[in-house]
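Methods: holo model generation. Sequences were used as deposited, without trimming of termini or removal of tags, and paired with ligand SMILES retrieved from the corresponding compound records. Each pair was processed once, and we did not select among multiple samples. The sequence and flavin-adenine dinucleotide SMILES for this entry were:
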Amino acid sequence: MNEEGVNMSKEVVSKILSDPGSLDRRSFLKLGAAGAGSMLLLPANASAAPKVKSSARIVIAGAGAAGLTAAAQLMQRLEGAQITLVDARKEHFYQPGFTLVAGGIKPASYVVSATKDYVPAGVELIEEAVAEIDPEGKKLVTASGKPLPYDYLIVATGLKLDYAAIEGMDVEQIGHNGLGSIYHSPEKAAATWQAMSQFADTGGVGVFLRPGTEMKCAGAPLKYTFITDDYLRRRGNRGKAELIYNANNKVLFSVPIVSEKVRMLFGERDVKMNYERILTALDLGKKIATFKTAEGPVELGYDFINVIPPMRAADAVRNSPLPWQEGNWAADGWIEVNKHNLRHARFDNVFAVGDVAGVPKGKTAASVKWQVPVAIDHLVAQIEGKESQAHYGGYTSCPLITRLGQAMLIEFDYKDNLTPSFPGIIAPLEELWISWVMKTMALKPTYISMLRGRA
Ligand SMILES: Cc1cc2nc3c(=O)[nH]c(=O)nc-3n(C[C@H](O)[C@H](O)[C@H](O)COP(=O)(O)OP(=O)(O)OC[C@H]3O[C@@H](n4cnc5c(N)ncnc54)[C@H](O)[C@@H]3O)c2cc1C
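and the model returned the structure below.
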């Protein structure tokens, strides 16, 4: 963020902290535009430079957060290029809002809009899934069999929620009989709210978990545990409930200092913590969850459970030559890119941005915000026959809600360094109202601006 942005943000944030009533719509937008942490930071504005003339065919697979942002930025940088987005989904989901829908804070409609509303003029949208990727032949094939040759490819297909990998799971049952899952869709996030709210009225055993794979927004399972705890307290039923959080490995969060902070908060709020437990099966009728542990399978009965499934690259990506060929990310199909410029390691005209990129941190919209301008800068430099110095250091962020009305704004990079946007103003490990405001109000307008290439 530039100095002016920092000063303006500091000014707005200080004003809000000293006089919360002053936080009108204009201030929110100013805050967001100026760089209110999370994904709200402005990139270096490349659109001021003259456009590069090119007739290159650039195909973007996936028109979600990363694909749309890439299309908008390419249009700002290039003149004459043929840019094509390919995605079968007509709806656009603002996924950072799913937690708010499942927390009873926003309606499902808050997170749904139309993909075509963000497709820049001059970009073609093909409303089909990509079925095959052939980087040697420099072409994609769509689900209807249509070949799409390209000079450059940007893969932005996000990830696949692999509910089928959990034995006994039935997504149609989300919202019934204590079964929740905030990740599935806006409708199921709303259904999860109904199930959780019912649980908050009665108490019982609440089971929370995260999968054993890489996942998007690793803070979301924690946030939802905190939100459930808060509802139980507000309704006077916390004494009737036992909350159990099951981590997949030895920590609660990948950044050690954040993990420790969450451990302390869970301890204070009487959330029981289990480690190295991975959900493998559900008996939805009997309400029993089975976890894989080092000591063998362990069963946990529940009255409410928030199921978060394993996450993998889309099948078209996994079945292509693009994933890592060995190492931790090979099995789930994450794409083998250079973690600092998002260029493919073996196909230099291919980039991967967003959740599908096989990089050590990220899988947030905040990462998209910082990855895309870097990838685009390298792609445009390649067209010009130049070298780009743009560098992505792994910035990502998690506005970690810890109760209704409070959150910790956690920002960090590949090296697990905390990278607060407002040092001295917003402490990353403090539960603050202003961080809650950013998550619940300022984030969406800036996310939408990002899709339009304006933030
Ligand atoms: C519950 C939840 C909470 C979150 N909270 C936050 C948060 O607080 N802050 C934050 O920054 N991020 C958060 N995120 C993460 C954020 O939403 C994602 O990281 C971001 O959307 C990634 O962008 P993407 O473009 O890679 O994937 P997506 O936005 O998911 O888009 C992928 C697109 O690819 C398409 N696609 C898939 N397969 C194919 C195919 N074969 N062919 C063509 N298209 C295909 C899909 O239809 C989709 O449109 C959260 C996510 C969830 C689910």
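Residues 39, 61-67, 86-87, 89, 95-96, 98-99, 129-130, 156-158, 182-183, 216-217, 220, 314, 316, 354-356, 363-366, 368, 399 surround flavin-adenine dinucleotide (CB under 6 Å).
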